[in-house]
Specification:
Elements (H helix, E strand, L loop, with lengths): L1 H14 L5 H17 L4 H24 L3 H18 L2 H17 L3 H15 L5 H17 L3 H16 L15 H14 L3 H18 L2 H17 L3 H15 L5 H14 L6 H16 L1
Helix pairs in contact: 1-3, 2-3, 3-4, 3-5, 4-5, 5-6, 5-7, 6-7, 7-8, 7-9, 8-9, 9-10, 9-11, 10-11, 11-12, 11-13, 12-13, 12-14, 13-14
Length: 293
């Protein structure tokens, strides 16, 4: 089951949440859930609950990335219960991170902040520096939405400090995606929302470089969108247009509603430039992707 999880997580990271979800759901139904229904010794049951929690979380994340927020919430709640049964506190904190991310995305940053803080409280200081870095990053995202500039910047610093302590060989499989491509991308969005384009541009470029090395189109698309937004905040439409085209190109390579939403956000941000030829051209190029979503 651990090997299956690793393969499906890799598929999600490289191809988006719309790839492999139905296959993973069928695997859970046919192979994992029947094992949980059996009577097993406590150590075996905990191991099974841990594996099931990981895969249920991934199903939730895939649903989240596909824009199916109700299904994502149900999967994440189920994953949290399984993680609690497994007694794996780091895994439980990881699930809370996913719930925090979704809450902020859905317009509830106060809840997102509370969930991230709950994850940190349950994690402890030494369990998983990668998970801690993620929780701080997601708390920063929520704080930025709340307009808490100083607190958000502090949370970014804490996230970076936690990630410096990461030892990949000591982390669990689910933590492998918490890397510079992901974290710098989240920080770029934090500073974008804070109206700090210089910092947003710096982190976006770092995320883009790492995503390019790993051929991660989804992360690259979202970080290019953050870069484009930082250019727009500085009234540099030409640079924003260039980054926006890269966002479009990468978004077409994956099945991800979040990439589509990033493109739509850029369209809205460009509206203040009226019918400038670059705005019109970008919207024309984006039409096929947006209407197909």
């Amino acid at each position: 089951m651990k090997k299956m999880f690793a393969e499906f997580q890799r598929m999600d990271v490289l191809q988006g949440g719309g790839s492999g979800r139905l296959i993973l759901a069928e695997y859970m139904t046919q192979h994992v859930l029947p094992l949980l229904r059996r009577t097993n010794a406590e150590p075996v049951r905990r191991a099974l609950c841990e594996a099931a929690a990981e895969q249920t979380y991934l199903l939730g994340w895939m649903a989240y990335d596909s824009g199916e927020q109700g299904a994502a919430q149900r999967y994440l709640i189920q994953s949290l219960r399984l993680a609690e049964e497994s007694k794996n506190t780091a895994l439980g904190a990881h699930v809370l991170a996913g719930m925090a991310d979704q809450a902020t995305l859905l317009g509830n940053p106060e809840e997102g902040r509370s969930l991230a803080q709950a994850g940190r409280a349950g994690l402890g200081k030494k369990a998983s520096p990668a998970c801690l870095a993620d929780l701080w990053a997601l708390e920063a995202r929520a704080l930025a939405k709340l307009g808490a500039k100083a607190e958000a910047a502090h949370a970014v610093v804490q996230s970076e400090a936690a990630f410096e302590r990461v030892r990949v060989e000591e982390e669990q499989e689910w933590a492998t995606f918490i890397d510079p491509a992901y974290l710098h991308g989240e920080h770029a969005n934090t500073f974008r929302d804070l109206g700090m384009p210089k910092e947003a541009k710096l982190h976006a470029r770092k995320s883009i470089a790492h995503a390019r090395e790993q051929e991660r189109a989804r992360r690259g698309a979202m970080s290019h969108a953050a870069l484009a937004a930082s250019h727009l905040q500085r009234d540099n439409l030409e640079a924003a247009y260039s980054a926006g085209l890269r966002t479009l190109k990468l978004s077409k390579q994956v099945k991800s509603s979040r990439c589509v939403e990033a493109v739509q956000d850029l369209q809205r941000r460009m509206n203040r430039f009226g019918n400038h030829r670059l705005v019109v051209d970008f919207k024309d190029r984006a039409r096929e992707l947006v209407t197909a979503a």
